[in-house]
């Protein structure tokens, strides 16, 4: 392509300071280096994780920075050593990677790549420790290796999933983070059998969509009962759209919610998926599963000082506790098939997309999420 090997000037939304509105700026995007790919982003969505690190509450502030990690685009050019992708390929950037060479990537049981596992503090490329973004020569930091709030971005090849070019990028872009995480937590990790009962802790978390897709996965697996557990009863109506059949509000009961669920299900649910990050919800999710075969899966990220406490007999009575990262999907290997699930109409993503705005209105997308309005806002680049 005419731009290959050259610096590209384009529009990007730059976060200059924590919690301050993003500023649309003209940035220079350097060519990709070894094992890197420069991608033209066509659509990018706003995830709660972007807001969390924009607010910079409780983590290392890295500014100025180009946020964004849930997107769809087209390969513009590739760096030395890149053989799997060529200009024109349709790709989904992913915040975690798959180098295909480390022990984790070679294992059928793990997706925790040693080289490309998420690093929220690193604001530079992993190859040379430099940024590919500048404004008048001043470096602008990257975010989780993707930085999709830019019309062009540079990403390590291991963090790009090549997908069906017929798939609409304005829809499947949302599969690169939260939706796949929730779906995989149920289908890949909890693995409910047809006719089983599944409890989902935390409904419709703002901007996450994880719990909704966890319910979607349970419905796809043929669960007979999907019980939503949340402190906000207003979330039940929304959750019904994703397969929720029952609702339990812990505040409505004097006994622990796990005891309520055990009584409701004649001994406990077959599977439980926890999506809140609250350690007490995690404990409840584990203690509400049936002895002998019950499996609880933890998706939410707890506070760094949280402590999980339960009686050892809960394990000896053959309950299983598991954790998951990105739904146990290997980005390059597995994500293309998730896109095909959408193409075969086995997975509906449109109901997760509640808003669509031009990229120039990115601060409107932030406002919508901060107000708790909707799940996903997809932004159209080049407008």
From TrEMBL:
Q: Write the protein's name.
A: Uncharacterized protein
